[in-house]
Amino acid sequence: MLSKTYHLKFPSLDAAQIAAPFVTETLGNAIPECRLSGLTVLISKEGDISVNLFFPSVPDLKNFEKKHGGFVDMMKKTFLFKSTGFDGVCIFSFDGNENAA
Q1: Judging by DSSP bridges, how do beta strands 38-43 and 82-89 pair with one another?
Q2: Around Cβ 34, how many Cβ atoms within 10 Å?
Q3: 39-64: per-residue pLDDT in tens?
Q4: Which residue from 2, 38, 77, 93 has the highest number of Cβ atoms inside 10 Å of its Cβ?
């Protein structure tokens, strides 16, 4: 499984809370279109938003980058924040709810 991670650092928790719906809506809309196999969005009390997207294949990751990869640049036109990120290969993932009946 392939992964794309974004770390968005906002000046405050309030600023991150205002931006969070944009992040979740934009990336949530990409789920069926880009065949995401997982999406996690976390917000910290310091005003950081961490996003992890998971893809079953390289073509799906490339499709996401083509269609939605510019969402950070689009956000920078409206919100003040610093961003970092990376592509990776998922080496371990656990979700206790996956096996729940």
Answers
A1: unpaired
A2: 20
A3: 999 999 999 999 999 999 999 999 99
A4: 2
